[in-house]
Write a structure and sequence with these properties.
The protein is of the alpha+beta class and 1024 residues long. 39% of the residues lie in helices and 19% in strands.
Length: 1024
């Protein structure tokens, strides 16, 4: 290694030196201004301060200037043309002092005087070293021919000097004064150039500190004085491309020609453009192109990464980088790797090579554990294991980049790299970083023990274990049962059936003997993956278990064909361990702003992604029953993220495989059910339980919601496709239906003539005819004139539906007979009562018989009514009944209570017996209708009979009617529901209602109703 003493002894060959070393801009500035000063042009400088850390090129700059100063011929050869500012300058004297010469008997000035051959002139300042030479003494010593004076690496000497007592002070104080006087003297001398190297970066911190204290006390101390009169020069520009020029000069005899370099730059530009398109970085590809041209054969990020640790104490900035890169280049060449790469990258540090690893550890010894555990340990380090699994070197390259960016030991230094910076450094032609985050960064975050993440997103290594190390340790300590339980709970939650149409029961990783299959429920069995290729991915045990099941179509298997279940278990361990770490932090009341929480969140995200990726990779096959009572497997792509549930994914997969269907409302579903579940094509009748059992047994039948078959049955019965016969179902086609007649009573006139209005409808035939009495109707009988409102004036009608186009299609005769009703009026004639009777409907064949002694009017010899009659004085009750013997009809017997003469006339009603009010109630507006409905609700048990409701739109274009004559009548809730439904259909318009009669639970309830509705009591309108 070159030093100033080697040069001063004449042991440096000038031609060889300039052949091996690159002329930096700092060197050129030093040479130019020094020779301008020595050549007398007046444009130079006399004092130069070389400012750079150790190994930064200061000594090389001095040697370069000294060689050119001594030898004019070499100077003219090296400095050609305008580069030589003093072409006529002859040889110069060159002297200097190396600060490592702590044993120099005459100190700095004694050594300089001796080199100049003037030791006697400075004898009084040397023996002893009690006084410092002043400016004039220095001028006399240095005068004469042009002179270049070097003061290099002073810190070792100065640290020694402050420890040597001199009189009442120390040698450091004397040296400080001597050097300050030297600067003052040289500043006024045209024939002398002084080159001093700065103290920054010295390993001799004690001496430097004490010397700086002494300089601060001096009026003209070395630091302040030198900076006032000296020209500061940085030998190597740390921010420019000179480092690359130096490395090329020192390490390579020659590099590729410019066209080849341009091709390499273009390839890297295109590779980076791919990364930009993938959204991995935003760095300009064109900028990279230019930087590669400047830095070749090195990657352009080398300078920035090296710059992060160049200020480390004791690190030789330029010399150290040269030494490190010399090792890297040598390894690349000897290993043959150089033939496979286009550039030398910052990550090309083979840390498994002792020489390189030792050099890196020297830069920052505190990261030795990080290197050994995380980065490089003959294949056992974490990133090496990640690379082994990934089949590339991405993790190792990324980790080495992060390491280089973490080597700084300077206080306040920014450590590490952001994700996009890693991409910029890693991307090269042929490298695919599309999965870099998932396959490298996420795995590094959970496996590297010494990798940390700064608040601004930089990854860096530190000599402190991170949360991932704790995670790993805790995960390994978990009991297997704990991990299994956590995994089962996770899978049960993810695949829990919510729609419950594809499957209804879930069993996670069970043994076969714990699974029981039900007739009407499908069970999803999650089986441990690991089947063989080109075979069913479930084990032979499960296949044998399925073969023994009765309901083979009621089971699904979720599994995988690849043996990746260990990844699932490892991820499950880490997931469970994260929960334990979180519980621990909470129990310790860890502050919310503690970095551990941020690290925990980051780990939770990454572990979560790894867990879901492992599950997705492991469970990628759904095995289901298929045709010919066989199992079939199909791939499924589980999401394990967001709102997508496992149930939804399996439904989608099975629907694509036509094993699950939601289309249960169309005719094709019915057709398939009839073909596959009735037993055979010829089978028309099936026991319904056997039909449903076939769906559980027939593996060719698709899965569907639980109620699908019952819904199908209801729909088919409703549409006439099937018919229910007890517990059996018969499927069509069926013979044409037999015509029939529908007769419905619409309303009954309560007053004379008391006719009934009917609605006559022919069913399954276009026409209907009728006869009255006992006559047999035929196709030639009278047609029903108004089928929708037929006025029945006769006591008996016989209807027949028929098809004029097919005379053979006729219905059975439908008989309708009128209901006889008997009404009365009791007249008070003063001295007697008179009874008037009326039979409805009016017909000549009706007779009325009555008694006045309370006996039944059915007895023989009873009086026949032929007009109003006088009630005998002793009569207490009149009984009467109407009959039409021709048709065997009779009305109900009515009992008319006769009031006693002279007594108070009271309503002739039994207050405790049920009563029917036969007065028709007619309501012609919505308010009256809803008021009556409200009264019915309040009254309770009142039933309305023979009701009709009509809703009509305001424009008259919609008219919806309802009429009903239920035998038991309608309660308030039924009437209300009908009215509300009609108004819903006709949203705006009128609502009308008619009630034929009201049935009350007691006579008193009837009287209360009449009082509330302001109606007069009329005994003739009451039936009890």
């Amino acid at each position: 290694m070159l030093n100033l003493d080697t040069f001063l002894k004449g042991e440096v060959n000038g031609s060889d030196f300039f052949e091996e070393n690159y002329f930096t801009h700092g060197m050129l500035t030093l040479v130019d201004r020094a020779f301008r000063h020595l050549g007398g042009s007046g444009a130079g400088s006399s004092v130069f301060l070389l400012s750079q850390a150790m190994g930064g090129g200061k000594t090389h700059s001095m040697i370069a200037l000294g060689l050119l100063a001594r030898d004019p011929a070499l100077r003219n050869k090296v400095l050609t043309g305008d580069q030589n500012p003093a072409p006529t300058l002859g040889p110069c004297r060159v002297v200097g002092f190396n600060g490592r010469s702590t044993d120099a008997a005459g100190g700095i000035w004694g050594s300089i005087a001796e080199q100049l051959g003037k030791a006697d002139q400075f004898a009084r300042y040397v023996s002893p070293l009690l006084s410092a030479p002043g400016p004039e003494a220095w001028k006399q010593l240095l005068g004469g021919e042009p002179l270049v004076l070097f003061l290099d690496e002073l810190p070792p000497y100065l640290e020694y000097a402050v420890a040597v007592p001199v009189g009442n002070a120390d040698l450091g104080v004397v040296t400080t004064a001597a050097l300050a006087n030297l600067f003052v003297a040289v500043a006024d001398m045209p024939n002398v150039c002084l080159v001093l190297s700065d103290l920054a970066g010295s390993n001799f911190s004690v001496g430097q500190s004490r010397l700086e204290d002494a300089f601060n006390r001096a009026v003209q101390g070395i630091t302040s004085e030198s900076r006032r009169i000296a020209v500061p020069i940085t030998p190597v520009n740390p921010n420019g491309d000179e480092l690359y020029h130096i490395l090329r000069k020192r390490l390579f005899a020659q590099v590729a020609p410019e066209p080849e370099v341009k091709k390499v730059a273009e390839a890297y530009r295109e590779a980076l453009r791919e990364a930009v398109q993938m959204g991995l970085t935003t760095t300009s590809p064109e900028t990279l192109f230019t930087r590669v041209l400047d830095a070749y054969p090195f990657h352009p990020d080398l300078r920035e990464l090296v710059g992060k640790f160049k200020e480390n104490e004791g690190f030789q900035q330029t010399r150290g980088v040269i030494r490190l890169m010399q090792m890297v280049v040598s390894n690349l060449w000897n290993s043959g790797k150089a033939a496979t790469i286009d550039l030398i990258h910052p990550y090309d540090l083979d840390l498994n090579l002792d020489e390189i690893a030792s050099e890196v550890r020297t830069i920052n010894p505190s990261l030795s554990e990080a290197i050994a555990h995380d980065i490089a340990h003959t294949g056992d380090a974490e990133v090496e294991q990640i690379d082994l699994a990934n089949g590339n070197s991405d993790a190792s390259d990324a980790a080495r980049l992060i390491l280089v960016a973490s080597l700084s030991t300077t206080p306040g230094a920014i450590h590490g790299l952001r994700e996009y910076q890693l991409v910029d450094c890693l991307q090269r032609p042929g490298r695919d970083l599309s999965t870099f985050k998932a396959n490298v960064l996420d795995k590094l975050a959970t496996r590297a023990w010494y990798l940390h993440n700064s608040a601004d997103g930089r990854l860096y290594f530190k000599n402190q274990q991170n949360l991932a190390a704790k995670l790993r340790s805790m995960a390994l300590s978990l009991h297997t049962e704990t991990v299994d339980r956590m995994l089962r709970e996770h899978l049960e939650a993810y695949f829990a059936p919510s729609l419950r149409d594809c499957y209804q029961v879930i069993k996670v990783l069970p043994p076969p003997d714990e699974v029981q299959i039900e007739l009407e429920k499908t069970t999803l069995v999650i089986v441990r993956p690991g089947g063989q290729a080109n075979q069913l991915p479930i084990s032979a045990d499960w296949q044998a278990w399925w073969a023994q099941q009765q309901y083979k179509n009621r089971v699904l298997f979720l599994t995988g064909s690849r043996d990746t279940f260990q990844k699932v278990l490892d991820s499950a361990r880490q997931t469970r361990a994260l929960q334990s770490i979180e519980d621990e932090l909470r129990s310790e009341n860890t502050p919310s702003d503690d970095p551990q929480w941020r690290a925990l969140d980051s780990l939770r995200d990454r572990v979560g992604l790894q867990f879901t990726a492992a599950l997705k990779e492991a469970f990628d096959q759904i095995v289901y029953p298929s045709i010919n009572s066989a199992l079939r497997a199909t791939g499924t792509d589980l999401a394990f993220a967001g709102n997508q549930s496992g149930e939804a994914t399996l439904r989608h997969t099975l629907e694509g495989a036509q094993k699950f269907t939601t289309k249960i409302d169309d005719d094709s579903f019915r057709t398939r059910a009839e073909a596959r579940l009735f037993g055979s094509a010829e089978t028309k009748v099936v026991l319904w339980s056997d039909f449903k059992r076939a769906a559980a047994v027939n593996t060719n039948w698709p899965l569907h919601k639980l109620s699908a078959l019952d819904d199908l049955k209801a729909a088919c019965l409703l549409r006439g496709h099937w018919r229910e016969e007890g517990n059996h179902v018969r499927r069509g086609p069926f013979p044409p239906p037999v015509p029939e007649v529908s007769v419905r009573e619409l309303s009954v006139q309560e007053e004379s003539p008391g006719y009934t209005y009917l609605k006559i409808e022919p069913l399954h035939a276009p026409a209907v005819v009728f006869e009255t009495g006992d006559a047999e109707p035929t196709a030639a009988s009278s047609p029903v004139p108004t089928p929708t409102r037929f006025e029945a004036t006769a006591l008996r009608y016989r209807f027949l539906a028929h098809d004029p186009a097919d005379l053979a299609r006729t219905s059975p005769v439908k008989d309708w007979t009128a209901k006889l009703r008997l009404k009365y009026q009791l007249h008070n004639r003063g001295d007697h009562f008179e009874v008037e009777l009326l039979a409805l409907p009016k017909a000549n064949s009706i007779s009325i018989r009555y008694t006045t002694d309370g006996s039944s009017p059915t007895s023989v010899g009873i009086a026949t009514y032929d007009g109003p009659f006088r009630v005998p004085a002793n009569c207490r009750v009149v009984c009467a009944m109407a009959t039409a013997s021709e048709y065997g009809l009779s009305s109900e017997t009515i009992r008319i209570t006769i009031p006693q003469q002279g007594g108070v006339e009271r309503p002739s009603i039994d207050l405790t017996a049920p009563a029917r009010w036969t007065q028709q109630t007619k309501l012609d507006d919505a308010a009256a209708v809803w008021d009556t409905i409200g009264r019915l609700e309040k009254a309770g048990s009142v039933m309305a009979h023979d009701i009709s409701l009509t809703a009509e739109s305001a424009d008259g274009q919609q008219n919806v009617e309802y009429s009903g004559a239920l035998e038991g009548g309608y309660d308030a809730s039924a009437v209300k529901a009908i009215a509300q439904k009609l108004q819903d259909i006709v949203s705006e318009g009128s609502l009308r209602m008619a009630i034929g009669s009201l049935a009350f639970p007691s006579g008193q309830a009837l009287l209360d109703w009449l009082k509330a509705t302001n109606q007069a009591f009329n005994a003739a309108k009451v039936r009890q």
